[in-house]
Each structure stands twice: as C-alpha cells, then as structure tokens.
C-alpha cells in the first residue's frame, strides 16, 4: 500500500494505524513521538485517535515535530 509521507512516496503494510506509523518513523529518524502532530489528507488527526485511525492507500500524511526553545 502506498502513502505520501511529508511529500515522499512510502510503502506501508495494509492495516497500519497512525500510531504504528509514528512509532516506525520515530525509531528510524530518532524523533520523539510525544511531540508530533499528524495531518492526514489536510485534516489533523487528534492524538486520541492515532491508535484507531487506519491509513488507506493514497493517504497524504504530514508529520510535524514540535521543537521547544527559549
């Protein structure tokens, strides 16, 4: 199954949830999964729905990492 993740085409397994995708990219890219916002097809996915939101072929996903500073 193919999605677009931050502008790049990516193959994922059918049945992958937003939470699974976040865990996958967090481990691969060294991101802190607690500080991300997910946009799916131009709509924000609330964190409370990450585990229950199953990605579909053709979804466009944008991941934004929050960065603290002073």
UniProtKB/TrEMBL annotation:
CDD domains: Ubl_ThiS. InterPro entries: Beta-grasp_dom_sf, Mopterin_synth/thiamin_S_b, Thi_S, ThiS/MoaD-like. NCBIfam families: thiS (TIGR01683). This is Thiamine biosynthesis protein ThiS. It comes from Hyphomonas jannaschiana VP2.
């Amino acid at each position: 199954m193919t999605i677009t993740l931050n502008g790049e085409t990516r193959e994922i397994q059918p049945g992958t949830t937003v939470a699974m995708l976040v865990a996958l990219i967090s481990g691969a890219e060294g991101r802190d999964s607690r500080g991300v916002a997910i946009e799916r097809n131009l709509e924000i996915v609330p964190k409370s729905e990450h585990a229950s939101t199953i990605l579909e072929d053709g979804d466009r996903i944008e991941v934004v990492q929050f960065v603290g500073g002073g």
